[in-house]
Amino acid sequence: LGPLSFGFHISELNSPQAVITTCASEPSISDPSPSMFPECLPMPEAQYASIVAILSIGGLIGSLLAGLVSGSRRRVALINAILLLAGSLLTGLATTPFHMLCGRFLSGMGIGVVAVMAPIWLVHIAPPDLRGAFGTVNQLGIVIGILLAQIFGLYLSTPNLWRYILLFPALLALGQLFLLPLTPDSHLYPTSLSALLQPDRRRALVTTVALQIGQQGSGINAVMFYSTSILSSVFPKSAALVSLLISISNVGVTLAAANLLDRLGHRQLLVGSSLTTSVVLLALATSLAFNWAFVSAVAIILFVCSFAIGLGPIPFLAAPALVDPEAAGAVQSLGLAANWVGGFLIGSAFLSIRSSIG
């Protein structure tokens, strides 16, 4: 449930952006009429971008804390579920942009913990010959969460219903709390900085950080945060539907990657994924500049698919694969810290950069 929440929070503000900030959609006759909460939270584009991007700052702090904490896995899972529950409730019930900002920050802390611990736990319980497949379960949960957010956004992006999109992760957090007694428990030990600077661990740390920076450098968060906004120029009436098709493709290719990782190896898939995303991004930028709708749709789907085959799952698998279990949490948390910083920069700057270059 943790990776599912991770993916949902990444994409939950994608489709309802216009409704939340400007009440752009007309309410349906069948919509309920809540009186306690405003139908929208008017704000400039830059402020909305800050609310989107603050998830990454929370994720940065959550990832660092997860790598440094000592105690039981069950206790860490409890803290994670409480953060996700509080963040979702505060975001979904927000009456001001500041409330939404605070809620997204708490949710970010929760998914920061998930991002560190889930891949390590999965690799820890996986048979040696199936570690690649088990490792992709984390990424599969994330992309299914993104898909769910797109489905909710397609049908609930109205002035009276958008809050249900943001409240849905609270149900996932309650599910985590309910299943907590079934969570395998063991002790977590913090790793000192000096221990990470040992030659073998230092190499693993540099590799993990480089992979996480490369993942964000691909531009994936710009697509996951703002795909509906990006495509609205070439698909004015169906951008949300195209975004949904993108997410469906993402799930399908991530399922395929589960088999390919153990058969072809990480290096081949990572190189192929990186080269393909570079070529497809060039095609996407060109098609958007010339308003080629069909080419834009195909390019963005191919971009997400090429990302999902390598750049998506492999960076999360690096730490548990390259370093001993005692240091895996610390290496993973520092790698993800770099990932979250990149995510924040992209999430906060993308809309402004796009507006400035037209």
Overview of the molecule:
- The protein has a two-stranded antiparallel ribbon.
- The protein has helices at residues 2-11, 17-22, 45-68, 73-92, 97-125, 131-156, 162-179, 193-196, 199-217, 220-231, 239-264, 266-289, 293-311, 314-322, 325-357, and strands spanning 71-72, 187-188.
- Residues 26-34 have low confidence and may be disordered.
- It has 358 residues and is mainly alpha-helical.
- The longest helix is centred in the C-terminal third of the chain and has 33 residues, at 325-357.
- The chain is built from 15 helices and 2 strands.
- It has a single domain (2-23, 41-184, 194-357), classed as MFS general substrate transporter like domains (Growth Hormone, Chain: A), CATH 1.20.1250.20.
- Helix content is 78%, strand content 1%.
- The protein is globular, with a radius of gyration of 20 Å.
- Within the CATH hierarchy, at the fold level, what is the topology? Growth Hormone, Chain: A
CATH superfamily: MFS general substrate transporter like domains
Read across the widest sheet, the strand sequence of neighbours is 1-2
Structural class: mainly alpha
What's the helical proportion of residues? over 70%
Beta-strand portion reads under 5%
